[in-house]
């Protein structure tokens, strides 16, 4: 290959409004963060995501000022952020600052210096705005969220009600761990009393009984990792991880009673979180107890995603995040992207009684059904399963993730049982396992018939009767039938407790 040809193949893609990268910078009390999204669309991926722990809000209660060392580290980080944005061709950067910069006496001066380093305007958010934007971020990742979003940063606790895809009442309290430690004189018992007195005054805490708490923030993700470890949970994906309230309360009370050294010994607790973790646990405990909440749902989406979500068009915001991700993946990795829709339509007669939710998951499976074709045959089933199970998409809970990934496993492995190391049976349930097997085997038959060649499946049909699964193929495509097709049709029919029937007509 000549240099000119190589250069042509390596040319960057043409920039359009949909794929031009944009950046979000989040300036918090404990950390500053840069996220570069690869376009202004619902399923945008993160080109770059990094944070720097600067703790500009450390000792805010005692001093009323941002920490000098923290400011220095933050400004150095902003200088790096700007260089990274320039390198990625970012033309738009949306920067927000939260509690520490908002409340410190030297906050305005810090913002001016930060704007110079970043090269963009920084919006200093009110506590209520911060709460609502974080809640919008949660809704971007969990569209059916119903309860209260609580974003625990280093300097504040920001809360907003969510229901039916919208945010409601919002409130903020100065109970981020960095401040709470100072306010409570380094006593978790004092912190508990302070948090309880603050929460009992808030309207946003009313009407929450039996609903969910959507937890945003690194401290609460650390609590979730502890719970995953204690429960030996099989899926290490934090987004949409659910902790029942009774278990969450027990864990919070254990964590609140542990010292820094004890927490640092735990593999699942980042060392930088050890000091603040007991105070985060106290806040979570009081929110669950006083709200009468049924469970805690961890959200990997929050303020940064909310800032990004606000930049999308109204049309983009209404799109299904799971299906948009699956469509993008299909377009990037499938041999023939148009084939996925044909597979989806072709197998539909087998699932005439499916619900809207089941149809949506089947669509996602079909869109991801060619994800493993480049893998080595020995790794195709388990590798594709792991890829789909842990992929960075939203709009699917852990049961749905397990169902989609299991169907992809069967699409490649057939009716084979899972290897012992794959342990998602408790996430699936019996009905989910059956659904995954049937959809996966139907896709497997489709690929055996067509080898992903578009335009073939519409000439063939499947039919489900009380006794058979019938495949009908026109005479001019009889050559596509063969032993492998017959075998896969048998397996599909068996999954439906029917007999296989092939008809040339």
Characterization of the model:
Helices cover 47% and strands 16% of the residues. With 505 residues, it is an alpha/beta fold. It has helices spanning 3-9, 60-63, 68-87, 99-103, 107-118, 127-141, 177-183, 188-199, 218-231, 245-256, 260-264, 277-291, 303-309, 314-317, 321-333, 338-347, 356-367, 380-389, 398-413, 425-450, 483-495; strands at 22-27, 31-37, 46-53, 92-97, 122-124, 147-152, 157-163, 166-173, 212-216, 242-244, 295-298, 461-464, 468-473, 499-504. It starts with a helix and ends with a strand.
Measured as a percent range, the helix fraction is 40-55%
Query: Mean of the pLDDT scores?
Result: 92
Number of helices: 21
Q: Which regions contain 5 or more consecutive residues with pLDDT less than 50?
A: 1-10
User: Which structural class fits the helix and strand makeup?
Assistant: alpha/beta
Strands in their spatial order, largest beta sheet:
8-7-6-9-11-10
Number of extended strands: 14
Termini separation comes to: 49 Å
From the structure above, extract its key features.
elongated; 5-stranded mixed beta sheet; 21 helices; disordered N terminus; 6-stranded mixed beta sheet
Provide a short characterization of the protein structure:
This protein has helices at residues 3-9, 60-63, 68-87, 99-103, 107-118, 127-141, 177-183, 188-199, 218-231, 245-256, 260-264, 277-291, 303-309, 314-317, 321-333, 338-347, 356-367, 380-389, 398-413, 425-450, 483-495, and strands at 22-27, 31-37, 46-53, 92-97, 122-124, 147-152, 157-163, 166-173, 212-216, 242-244, 295-298, 461-464, 468-473, 499-504. With 505 residues, it is α/β, with parallel strands linked by helices. Strand 12 (461-464) and strand 13 form a beta hairpin.
């Amino acid at each position: 290959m000549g240099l000119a040809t190589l250069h042509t193949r390596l040319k960057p893609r043409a920039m359009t409004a949909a794929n031009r990268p944009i950046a979000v910078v989040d300036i918090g009390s404990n950390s500053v963060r840069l996220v570069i999204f690869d376009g202004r669309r619902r399923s945008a991926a993160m080109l770059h995501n990094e944070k720097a722990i600067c703790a500009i809000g450390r000792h805010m209660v005692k001093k009323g000022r941002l920490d000098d060392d923290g400011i220095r580290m933050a400004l150095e980080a902003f200088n790096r952020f700007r260089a990274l944005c320039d390198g990625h061709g970012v033309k738009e950067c949306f920067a927000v600052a939260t509690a520490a910069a908002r409340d410190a006496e030297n906050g305005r001066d810090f913002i001016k210096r930060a704007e110079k380093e970043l090269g963009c305007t920084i919006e200093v958010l009110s506590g209520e705005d911060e709460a609502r934007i974080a809640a919008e971020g949660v809704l971007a990742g969990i569209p059916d969220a119903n309860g209260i979003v609580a974003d625990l940063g280093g300097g504040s606790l920001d809360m907003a009600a969510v229901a039916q895809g919208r945010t409601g009442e919002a409130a903020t309290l100065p109970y981020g761990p960095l401040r709470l430690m100072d306010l409570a004189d380094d006593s978790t018992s004092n912190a508990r009393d302070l948090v309880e007195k603050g929460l009992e005054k808030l309207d946003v805490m009313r009407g929450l009984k039996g609903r969910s708490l959507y937890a945003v923030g690194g401290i609460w993700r650390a609590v979730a990792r502890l719970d995953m470890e204690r429960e030996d949970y099989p899926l290490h994906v934090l987004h949409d991880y659910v902790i029942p309230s009774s278990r969450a309360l027990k864990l919070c009370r254990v964590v609140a009673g542990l010292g820094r050294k004890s927490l640092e010994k735990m593999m699942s607790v980042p060392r930088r979180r050890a000091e603040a973790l007991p105070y985060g646990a106290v806040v979570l405990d009081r929110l669950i107890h006083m709200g009468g909440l049924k469970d805690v749902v961890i959200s990997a989406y929050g303020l940064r995603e909310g800032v990004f979500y606000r930049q999308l068009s109204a049309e983009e915001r209404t799109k299904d995040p799971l299906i948009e991700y699956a469509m993008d993946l299909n377009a990037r990795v499938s041999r023939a992207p148009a084939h996925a829709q044909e597979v989806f339509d072709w197998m539909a007669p087998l699932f005439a009684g499916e619900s809207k939710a089941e149809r949506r998951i089947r669509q996602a499976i079909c869109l991801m059904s060619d994800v493993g074709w480049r893998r080595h045959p020995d790794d195709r089933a388990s590798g594709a399963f792991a890829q789909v199970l842990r992929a960075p998409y939203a709009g699917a809970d852990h049961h749905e993730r397990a169902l989609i990934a299991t169907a992809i496993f069967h699409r490649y492995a057939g009716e084979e049982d899972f290897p012992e190391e794959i342990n998602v049976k408790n996430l699936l349930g019996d009905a989910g396992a059956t659904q995954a097997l049937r959809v996966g085997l139907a896709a497997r038959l489709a690929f055996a018939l067509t080898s992903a060649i578009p335009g073939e499946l519409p000439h063939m049909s499947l039919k489900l009767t009380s006794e058979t699964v019938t495949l009908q193929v026109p005479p001019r495509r009889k050559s596509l039938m063969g032993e492998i097709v017959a075998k896969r049709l048998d397996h599909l029919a068996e999954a439906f407790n029917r007999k296989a029937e092939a008809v040339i007509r």
